[in-house]
């Protein structure tokens, strides 16, 4: 085993040397593993990703109500009003035009990658 070098210990407040020389711990002479460095670098770079998702109100911002049964049309809620091409069209459902998504992407998931801080 190679000899461990000596290091000087300084006071954190005054900046003066407290002891003259102390042996460097043997752990600092261990070789640096490239695979561990690459693993930590890759995980930390994933932490800069921006969370993505859709609004909880997307596809639900209409004043639509269901016409109920007995009209020979689907019971999907329909846009109320008159005078526009949009009235009477289906709304809110994932099968309708301008409706909400089925199982929309949520941004509450934790996208952070963890690793041991040793």
Automatic annotation (TrEMBL):
The keyword Acyltransferase does not apply. It holds the Pfam family Ribosomal_L4. Residues 46-65, 77-118 are annotated as: Disordered. It comes from the Eukaryota. Residues 82-91 have a biased composition (Gly residues). One of its GO terms (cellular component) is ribonucleoprotein complex. Keywords: Ribonucleoprotein, Ribosomal protein. GO terms for molecular function: structural constituent of ribosome. Belongs to the universal ribosomal protein uL4 family. This is 60S ribosomal protein L4. It comes from Entamoeba histolytica KU27.
């Amino acid at each position: 085993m190679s000899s461990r070098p000596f290091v000087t210990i300084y006071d954190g407040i005054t900046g003066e040397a407290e002891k003259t020389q102390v042996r460097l711990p043997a752990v600092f002479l261990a070789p640096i593993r490239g695979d561990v460095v690459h693993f930590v670098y890759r995980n930390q770079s994933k932490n800069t990703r921006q969370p993505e998702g859709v609004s909880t109100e997307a596809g639900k911002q209409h004043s639509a109500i269901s016409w109920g049964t007995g009209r020979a049309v689907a019971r999907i809620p329909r846009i109320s009003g008159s005078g526009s091409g949009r009235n009477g069209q289906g709304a809110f459902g994932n099968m309708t035009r301008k409706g909400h998504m089925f199982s929309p992407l949520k941004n509450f998931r934790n996208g952070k990658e963890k690793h041991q801080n040793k």
